[in-house]
What does this fold into?
Amino acid sequence: MIRELLSPKDCAQCRGCCIFAEHELWEAPETAFPLVPRGEYFACRHLTEQGCELGENKPRDCAMYPFRVMSLDSSELITVSRFCKPVNALPLSTLTEFADKKAAEFRGAGCAIKAYNREYVILKVLED
It folds into this structure.
């Protein structure tokens, strides 16, 4: 999904979607894969020097990152993490157009829906 916005090279440069400080663990994608300690951080066990060893077979939560479906009151939102520098360098109009285009895919993604966190930018409110 993210490949529609970023090149693999741009995406792989930071690996912020796969490595988390202890205070960022709430943001980790919810998958069956446990995070493993790497120095002062925690990383997905599938992260290699070349990126994710699962490639296109990664879990949906991982494939969607830095986008998340979050809940606020009784609404579901498409949001984007501020921590993904390459995505956040894109114009907001590009991100909202992407959210509009992918709304049905996000809704039916079968991903974890987390409570809204103000560190995420709201791109779209999903309609019932």
About this structure: Residues 21 and 84 are 15 Å apart (CA to CA). The helical segments are 8-12, 60-64, 85-88, 92-107. Residues 2-126 form one domain.
